[in-house]
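Lecture notes, unit on protein representations.

Consider one protein chain, 153 amino acids long.
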Amino acid sequence: MNSLLGVRGLARASSTPGRTQLLNFFLINGRFRFVDLPGYGYAKAPKAIKAEWNQAAEDYLAKREQLVLSIHIVDSRHEPSKQDLQLHEWLVHHHKPHLIVATKSDKLSNNELRRNTERIARVFRTDRVLNYSATRKHGREQLWGAIEKSLKS
């Protein structure tokens, strides 16, 4: 989120997964909101806490009528996790508009990135996975384009 908005420190980032433990709301240009949901994939937290994060995210996604796009962030370096698959299936089942964004694309060679992106697309049964690099800003314009398109719908 910080990279996308070009603002340092807006959304707290940590090298330890699972630091976001609440829903965090950010008003963007007085037009729309980004909501940072608790992460659960690689977080080191008790199962009960992860279950609470999962329930909070599900409640928000299910009940928010104004939701126009969910951005499902996955790590391009790894196979999608069981939780990634569950979230994707939930979004599809509930007909929630979403986009899969594979982050850390700068950490892979072009061949590895292509191979991993194809694998992610195959696992999620989609033809659209957007690669993103926070450090190189690769994919930033495409992601903003998808967000703007969703806001107009």
